[in-house]
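thought: fold this chain, then report.
action: predict
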Amino acid sequence: MTIGIGPFVRKMRESAKMTQQDVATRSGLSRSYLSRLETGGIVRPSADYLVRIARAIGIHPDMLFKAAGYTRAVAANDDERQAVLDWLAAETKTWTADELGHWGRLMLHARESTLQWRTRHAGTLGRER
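observation:
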């Protein structure tokens, strides 16, 4: 059973110890919009607004997409991933060993950064005040 996007946004905002005004200021949205969202007045927020709210709170946007019942984000990520792999397969045919090594190190750093972000935020997400 899901709690819905509004209560989930409120829970994440309160877990981050932020007011609606804090999130509004950081996201560029109005405080009244956030209030309507949290109380159920808005049930299908745009993906752009969800991303802005997630960034303001400091959580991954996919968490809000899932709470809102949006599944298209996963499909888009799969399509984007395949496009990158196709580009990489074509591009690396002309790369030197040094260039491939540099790219590999960049990818490892990006993966480690993502894992660190998830680890850092896993202990705070959903925690009550």
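thought: worth noting. The longest helix spans residues 97-122.
final: tokens above.
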